[in-house]
Structures are given as structure tokens and as C-alpha cells.
Amino acid sequence: MADIRNNFVGIKSPNPFWLASAPPTDKAYNVVRAFKAGWGGVVWKTLGEEGPPVVNVNGPRYGAIWGADRRLLGLNNIELITDRQLQLNLQEIKQVKKDWPDRALVVSLMVPCVEESWKAILPVVEETEADGIELNFGCPHGMSERGMGAAVGQVPEYIEMVVRWCKANTRMPVITKLTPNITDVRRPARAAFAGGTDAVSLINTINSITSVNLDTFSPEPSIDGKGSHGGYCGPAVKPIALNMVAEIARDPETAGLPISGIGGVTTWRDAAEFLALGAGNVQVCTAAMTYGFKIVQEMIAGLENWMDEKGHQTLDDVCGRATKNVTDWQYLNLNYIAKAHIDQEACIKCGRCYIACEDTSHQAITSSVNGVRHFEVMEDECVGCNLCVNVCPVENCITMVPLAAGVLDQRTGKTVSPEYANWTTHPNNPMSKQAAE
Ligand SMILES: Cc1cc2nc3c(=O)[nH]c(=O)nc-3n(C[C@H](O)[C@H](O)[C@H](O)COP(=O)(O)O)c2cc1C
Ligand code: SF4
Ligand code: SF4
């Protein structure tokens, strides 16, 4: 059986599945239930500084996007950091860590951007024996207007400064949680690295309005007729998160910086993809909020089964395996040629591939032959874009088949070259050496 024990910046957990800082980790009651269900670790819901806790809205705080089967695809929230007393949280953290020593317990923090505030909170968290801290530089609403959360996370200089304060004032490992609400995620990652962070985690939620009520003209969730932008998360944000993780993982300036992958992880496969792109572990929020804590059991079993099947013995055999295959567009092999192929046995003749290709792609699919409904790819027109694959309702009905070297591409009339050739040397590229000669 594959060994999925995780060691993330020295913090050990029996598996790489941690609950992200959010409602599932807001109190001991939840965290204990999560640990009983099998979660490897948690990042406790973000704590603020000593004093009267923040106040949440008293109405709806979530908006959502659903698929046609009402499966939750994206969740939006306007919740703030914990609204429970700091001392109560600290007591519970200490007790839970004592009772569950083999699980990872990291404490998320967000205090004002002055060194005194960090100096005040760090020792009291250290006292709980928690395994580490996560700096919440990501919350996109409510706290950012008060100069915290994303307001810090969008300014690399502030990130570096706060990370430095934390590293100087605590022995606990520091994980810096990044906001995706920024143009180039490598900038804040580099700043955190420069400040001495032990790791980064990403992504926090994405600025969003999920819908507008067309009777009241209020954005949802609506509080007395008004809405405010919230933070988007869940399956819909996974592609954005995967790209950001990969961007950091392959950045030579932050080489070796551990990454905790967050954003839409719902199945073991999502987790494996984050690991393959360079994450050392994953954090989960929306999937637990949608399906309950026991979903981790399927994630654990699925990951173990897949690793066994593929002969991966430990997480190190998986982590970062896909990173080297992420490249810039200009290095993609322009001599790689594929054509769509329709399996006539599987085809239900719905015509979706035809209309997609006919109206918006390359007019490469027949709709009828001799007056009979028939969908077939015309290889002399097909550019291999795979739009038809993606709109076909029958899985694996349309597949992309690469042309072997030496075969004639009927569309261009050229034989397929066995050589790798990319845009940097393409004759049409004015910047290429070949073109210059
Ligand atoms: C209701 C809600 C509250 C959240 N509160 C926090 C928070 O206090 N601190 C934090 O760092 N992230 C917070 N998050 C963000 C999550 O930790 C996580 O980064 C995000 O939801 C993406 O993961 P997911 O797609 O698995 O949900 C919150 C998310 C939700 C849905
Ligand atoms: S791969 Fe693109 S061009 Fe080819 S048949 Fe499908 S949609 Fe048309
Ligand atoms: S979309 Fe798929 S099932 Fe529908 S006609 Fe095309 S190949 Fe057949």
C-alpha cells in the first residue's frame, strides 16, 4: 500500500489532506469531527487581534453557481475572519493539539500591518503548541477595506515586511497564503520567499459577484437589497489555482519553495493534480462544506489506489512530476499534429460536434451522408482543435488521434515531421533566427 504520510515544512500529518482555514475549522467541535473522519490536518479559521471580535452579516453570506444537475460548481462568500473570542479559540486550539498530536494544526492569522500587532499575537499562538502559522494575505472582502488580508497580499513589499516580522518573532514555521486577485502571482510569492517564509499556500478566494436578482436588482447574496463582492471558491476555481501553483513551482526565483495547493479540490484526482504540479500537500474547504467531512475518506482511498496502480510509493514520487511539462506557448511542438476521430458505435447523433465545428471552428464535420444523419470528421479540414471533443455529451466518443511521423496531413498536404520545432524557430516568426537569415 502506498505511503501517503506527509511532511510539509517539518509539519507531519498522516495524509496530505488538510482543511483550509474557513468555517469547517472555526471551532474545536468541527475540527475534532474532521480529525475523527480522517483529515490529516487543519488550518484553523483566521484569528484576529485581541479585542472585540469582528461582526459578520446576519443574513445570507453565500452565493453559488450550479451545473445543470444542481451540483455546486462555485461558491461565493462574504464571511469575515473568526467572529469568536481570541482566548476561546486559543484554548480550543491548545486542547485539540494536545488530544490529536499526530495531526497537523496550523493557525491562520490576520492582524493589522504594524509590527506590534504581530509581536503581540505570535507568542500567544506559540503557547498553544500549534504546528505553524499561516498568514492570511488573501481575504478579498471586509478585512481588506481595513488594510488587512488582500490589501497586504496585493503589495509585495508589505508581504515581505510582515513575513520578516513573523520569522523574527516566532519559532513556528510560517506559511504565507496568497491572494489570486493579482496580475502575476509570482510577485507575492517571491516577496514572501525574500522575507524568509517557509512555504506559500494558494489560492485564497477570487473577487466575484455570482448573480444578480432580476426582480430586486440586488447582487446575491443580498443583504437588505444590497450586495458586495465576495470570494469565489469551489470546483470552478481549480484551473486558476492549478495554474498559479504551477507558475510558482516553475519559477527559478522561488525554486524549492514548498507550496500548499488550495482551490476546488473535491476528489483525490484534483489533489493528485495539485501535487503533480508542485504542491507538497492540499487544503480543502468547499468540498467539505458541500459533502461533509467524510469526503476525505474517498480522497485518501482514491489517492492510495491510484498510487498503488501506478507504482508510486510515497508522495515524493508524485510531487512536482508535472512541473517540468508546464512550458510557455512558444516552446510547444508545432510539428505535433492530431485529428479528431468519431467512434460511430458510441455516437448518439445529437449533432453538437457538427454545429460547434460548423459555426465556430473549421467546418470539418459532416452532418449527413446521402441524406442520412451522419457525423464524421473530414481530415482534410480538421485542424485538431478538439472543440468537438469538449462539446460531445458522450465521453470518449470523439478522441484526438495523433498523426505518426511520415504520414501525410491531408489538410496541409505536408508529411508529418518527426522533428520537434517550435515558434522560436518558425519561419513566420519575425523574431526567429531562421527568419532573420
Ligand atoms: C465561507 C468561507 C470562509 C473563508 N474564510 C477564510 C478565512 O477565514 N481565512 C482564510 O485564509 N481563508 C478563508 N477562506 C478561503 C478558503 O480557506 C480557501 O482558500 C478557498 O475557499 C479555496 O478553497 P476551496 O475551493 O477548497 O473552497 C474561506 C472560504 C469560505 C468559503
Ligand atoms: S477537432 Fe476542431 S476542427 Fe477538427 S473536427 Fe473537431 S472541432 Fe472541427
Ligand atoms: S457530439 Fe458526439 S454524440 Fe453528438 S453527434 Fe457528435 S460525435 Fe455524435
UniProtKB/TrEMBL annotation:
Gene3D superfamilies registered for this protein in UniProt: 3.30.70.20, Aldolase class I
Family matches, as PROSITE patterns: 4FE4S_FER_1, 4FE4S_FER_2
Catalytic activity: 5,6-dihydrothymine + NAD(+) = thymine + NADH + H(+); 5,6-dihydrouracil + NAD(+) = uracil + NADH + H(+)
InterPro entries xref list: 4Fe4S_Fe-S-bd, 4Fe4S_Fe_S_CS, Aldolase_TIM, Dihydroorotate_DH_cat
UniProt xrefs under Pfam families: DHO_dh, Fer4_21
GO CC annotation, single: cytoplasm
GO molecular function: dihydropyrimidine dehydrogenase (NAD+) activity; iron-sulfur cluster binding; metal ion binding
Main EC class the enzyme belongs to: oxidoreductase
SUPFAM superfamilies for this protein: 4Fe-4S ferredoxins, FMN-linked oxidoreductases
Region span, Disordered: 418-437
Entry keywords, A to Z: Iron, Iron-sulfur, Metal-binding, Oxidoreductase
EC number: 1.3.1.1
4Fe-4S ferredoxin-type domain segment(s): 338-367, 373-403
UniProt-listed CDD domains: DHPD_FMN (cd02940)
Region forming the signal peptide: none
Positions in coiled-coil regions: none
Compositional bias per record (Polar residues), positions renumbered to this chain: 422-437
Family: Belongs to the dihydropyrimidine dehydrogenase family.
Job description of the protein: Involved in pyrimidine base degradation. Catalyzes physiologically the reduction of uracil to 5,6-dihydrouracil (DHU) by using NADH as a specific cosubstrate. It also catalyzes the reverse reaction and the reduction of thymine to 5,6-dihydrothymine (DHT).
Subunit structure: Heterotetramer of 2 PreA and 2 PreT subunits.
Name of the featured protein: dihydrouracil dehydrogenase (NAD(+))
